[in-house]
Amino acid sequence: MEKDERYYRGYLSHRYVSRRGLFRAFLNASHPPEPLPDSAQLRAPRPPGALPAPQFYQQCNRCQQCVKACPMGVLTVNEDGYPQLAIEYASCDGCQTCIAHCPSGALLPQAHFDTGLRPTIGATCISQQRHCRSCIDTCPSQALSLSERGLPDVDNARCYGCGECLIQCEIQAISLTPFA
Fold this sequence. Notes:
Oligomer: single chain
Largest sheet: 2 strands, antiparallel
Number of helices: 9
Shape: globular
Strand order of the largest sheet: 1-2
């Protein structure tokens, strides 16, 4: 997806974009996204409520209604025209507006909101040196806690993959990966 004026205007029109997320968007705008191979596309983060990957890609008609309806702007269109969850500049709040606007049935209502992503804390985390705790303090589900080593630990049972920890991490030591 090419990040042009329409892209940034969309991000600025949402309910909440963090200053850090906006700054990160401007810094990363010049880097074109890597194309996804077919096997990587199956592992790419799908919108909340998406059917399993093979059924999702068969059922989705690429109408982009879910992308247009997302108030947080965390749904983007991949190079094949399918919606993709892109928690880079704002977190997903689980409003399920994307599900309500899906005419094809590729997105189904969820009894328990979950994006299917979980945070992975990288070795560059500065929590041990500076006692940062920004990811722990901002986690809405309180799924992060400080381990004995001084690094954040993730409770996968409590986490629903909103991405708030990723947004709040100053040094980008957190990445979101699909949870099996």
